[in-house]
Specification:
The complex is a heterodimer of chains A (238) and B (837).
Chain A lengths: L10 E10 L7 E3 L2 E12 L4 E5 L6 H8 L7 E6 L2 E2 L5 H11 E4 L11 H11 L5 H11 L15 H14 L4 E5 L7 H18 L2 E5 L3 H5 L3 E6 L2 E6 L1
Parallel strand pairs in A: 4-9, 4-10, 7-8, 8-9
Antiparallel strand pairs in A: 1-3, 1-5, 2-3, 5-6, 10-11
Chain B lengths: L3 H17 L4 H30 L1 H5 L3 E5 L5 H9 L3 E14 L2 E10 L9 E4 L7 E3 L7 E5 L2 H5 L6 E4 L2 E11 L13 E5 L1 H6 L9 E7 L2 H11 L8 E4 L12 H35 L1 H9 L4 H37 L14 H23 L21 H20 L2 H28 L9 H12 L1 H35 L7 E6 L4 H10 L8 E11 L2 E2 H4 L8 H4 L2 E5 L8 E5 L11 E5 H7 L6 E5 L4 E11 L11 E3 L10 E6 L8 H8 L4 E4 H40 L1 H13 L4 H39 L7 H22 L1 H5 L2 H8 L1
Parallel strand pairs in B: 3-9, 6-8, 15-20, 17-19
Antiparallel strand pairs in B: 1-10, 1-11, 2-3, 2-7, 2-10, 4-5, 4-8, 6-9, 7-8, 12-21, 12-22, 13-14, 13-15, 13-18, 13-21, 16-19, 17-20, 18-19
Helix pairs in contact in B: 1-10, 2-8, 2-10, 2-11, 2-21, 8-11, 8-12, 8-21, 10-11, 11-12, 12-13, 13-15, 14-23, 15-21, 15-23, 21-24, 22-26, 23-24
Classes of the chains: A alpha/beta (238), B alpha+beta (837).
Chain lengths: 238, 837
Amino acid sequence: MSQSPEGFPILSARGVGKQVAGVSGGSGKEGGGLTILSDVSFEMAAGESLAVVGVSGSGKSTLLGLLAGLDLPSSGEIHLAGKCLNRLDEDGRARLRGAHVGFVFQSFQLLPSLTALENVMLPLELAGVAAAAEQATQLLARVGLAARLGHYPRQLSGGEQQRVAIARAFAISPSVLFADEPTGNLDAASGERVSELLFALNAEQGTTLVLVTHDERLAARCGRTLRLDAGRVVADGQ
Amino acid sequence: MANNLGHWRLAWRLLRRDWRAGELRVLLSALVIAVTATTAIGFFTDRLQRAMVGQSAELLGGDLLLQGPRPLALAWRQRAATEGLATSETLEFPSVVVSGDNFQLAGIRAVAAGFPLRGTLRTAATPYGAEQAVTTIPAAGEAWVEARLLPLLGLEVGGQFELGSLALRITRVLAFEPGGGGNFAALAPRVLINQADVTSAEVLQPGSRVSYISYFAGSEAALRRYRTWLEPQLEPSHRLTDVRHGPQARPSVGAALDRAEQYLGLASLVAVLLAGVAIAMGARRYSERHFDVAAVLRCLGAGQRDILALFLPQLLWLGLLGSTLGVILGFGLQFGLFYLLRELLPGTVPPAGWQPLAVGFLTGITVLAGFALPPVLRLKQVSALRVLRRELDPMPLRGWLVYGGALAAMGGLMWRYTGSAALTLGVLGGALAALLLLGLVAYALLRASRRLQRGVGVAWRYGLNNLWRRPLLSVSQILAFGLTLMAMALIALVRGDLLSTWQTQLPADAPNHFVVNVVPERVGAFGDFLAAGNIRSAGLYPMVRGRLAEVNGEPLAVRLPPGEEGAGAVNRELNLTWSSELPADNTITAGQWFGAAASGEAVVSVEAQLAVRLEVKLGDELRFNFGSGELAVTITSLRSVQWDSFRPNFFMIFPPGLLDNYPATYMTSFYLPDKRKGELAQMLRDFPAVTVIDLDRLMEQVRRILEQVTMAVEYVLLFVLLAGFAVLYAALQASLDERLYEGALLRTLGASRAQLRAGHLAEYALLGLLAGLFAAAGAELVAFILYQQVFQLAYTIKWPLWLLLPPVGALLIGAVGYWGTRRVVRNSPLVVLQGLS
């Protein structure tokens, strides 16, 4: 297991499991509820990149949600940026996300009512950054969208929307970036461009990257791969 | 984490964007409707109350006012002087004024120097010209008249008219007189004369309808002492009024106006309630469409408080914007109300205060808080996990939160309106029960309409299914439109149908003139005058004024149930008559008519309905008070009377000879066709003391008042209708996403645009049809009860309601629904399916 330069992991999971009562589509049955994840453990040092792969329904997205503090595990512990997520309430986890976490989603998740610039400004404004507009403009220029600042999401192509989402994700210089199938909704060329950008910015900012995908080529660009099957880690390797 | 300024800026930006995308239209328009209705009515009633109450003392003409049937007793005047109170006496009576062939019933007021003690008379040199406050009163031989009298008499300022045997010159136009207008005179144009002229006009005879009003002014302490001294000595016929005490402190406005105010207030509440429903639906959709935004924000690190800090300011801005717009619109629209009611209102209405603005604003914020806050609060419950699992909706709102907020908002507004917690709870409870009941009826209609499903094509079935699968939404819309249409139909019915029904039920030659104040010495001559002109009268009846004091030795005040003491016929002076013959349209219902043989016997015949109210029966003893004496009589018969026959009718009929000691005048009624009205001028010249009451003109006036009041109510009902449309629009919007999706799917599966259109049309036309049916049934039922119980008119089924309302509803709502769903048909299925994914 790798350690961060300071000697402690930026992200760690210990014996993480998730069970849901009475929800269909889980990975297996255990007792009365459905087990979606069981006994997932790993650690990540700052700057590392990890691909979580597996077939549909293997629990990839659930794991991502738990690691990012969007949900709490039924068992086990998750530590993010030195904080134990289990001990934080929803607002505490939100604060932690606001300070340390960036997201890129398969469906982009831009706010349709805000322009590209405003979407990128959003996390900066939530964090109370004064020069939000300047920083956001620079980031959009960095992802090649300097000319589309005032465009709304519906006026942008899928690839462009995902680049806006990447700019937004890197706006607060996150310690950890979670990407959920970032190229899943894109054609090959756009997907290629987006993944280039994602890894380039990741390298520039030294961000820790957790990438959920079933695109083996994309996974191969990460330093490590965690393979899930029916909610269990079946392989963890470089 | 974040600074507040950033939140506000972001909130503003989100709001602006939502506005441009049309997301806020439902919320805003519903809010504007609610605030506009409230503000317009608020301004209207506020200004009216200012006109009527705010200047009570000035309006009253004194600090204390004593009204009675006789001049102020000398002892009472002396006592007032000892207390240091200034006193001024006036007398008022109705009388006909004549100029050439023109004659008009007028309210005459004779004043003496010093009048008014408080406030000022305002006059103008020309009709509706610039008003001037004056400190004098008309000189002897002069009259100041209300502007509207001039055209009725065909005169201008400077012209002369006759009052009894006296010629008076019009020197000023009377714009405002303190203490003016008893309820009778409120209808008749006012004439102000000098008291010195009353005697020479010879219009007052013993028994004439005269009201003596004494005004007192002075220090509060002196007034209190005088009042305490005076009150025990007052007779039932006296009325004491001051600016602070009781409902009489408010000068008589006329019941029509009071009732209009109540209806308007109620209608505005209904508009607010409907708008509230639209707001709740709009807010729910707004909230649901922002679940994803909230989830992304949560994901990006926003806490629950941040979410509220982002969305509540939007609600607040929306509230401020909607309330401002509504208040401005309401301010403008109140002028419309004043215009519609112009003839009922005093000449000048003071400008409104700021309260209606505040109330309008408060209503806007309250309605928004009560109806929109609960759904918007739901946003803070959105889980960040929704970004990964879109189906993850926040917990549904608890019922008590949704309905509790709405109930609290409505209760608060109603409480402000009624000023009574008990009444508010009662009305709220009653309204809830009524809504529940009516909702069941509407639901039954909806259920019954399902039979239509058989034998219609797929498009129609699709449309009609839309109606049935959202039963709550459909029922609420049937109620909203049904009740609005019903109210409008009822008002149209009452205005148009009621008066004409009443008139057609009268024979063509029903008397249209009453004559009162024929003095005994001229009865013969008056009868000859009528005979000479071949005018058929209902016979001349003597009239003596007296008051019923006791029943079987028990004072009337003790006998009557609380609330009845003030009832007109019982407590005011009654017009009593004698006759040996039973009047033609009277029927004996109990006992026996005393007949000619009973002359001078102490018996009486009582009108049957009055007997019920007084709880008296045959054999009971009644004691009457005549001011100058008393009389005890035994009831020997009860009579039913046809009051709307327009013949002289009396509650009490005595045998001849019994009332000989008391001053009497005679009255009659007769029919005179329009073209012979000129003969009345001659009658008034020959008999200057008589008062002619022209029922045609009175009816015309009643009709005009009724028309104005109903128009004002209809004007406000327009707000209710608009609010109904807001509900429809909100419902359309609420189901639009689903409709778009289904429409796209149906078209992908091969449905044509025409089929989709037909489906939408079927859905909304049926909704309108059901609302129309509901309205027709409701209007029919309420009209039936009104006609039978209140107006006592024969009722026939109002077929036009059934023929008109359902198609009108279908057309109106069908058109709006068709228009509202056009996007479903217009957009390409691909765009829709992509946009929703």
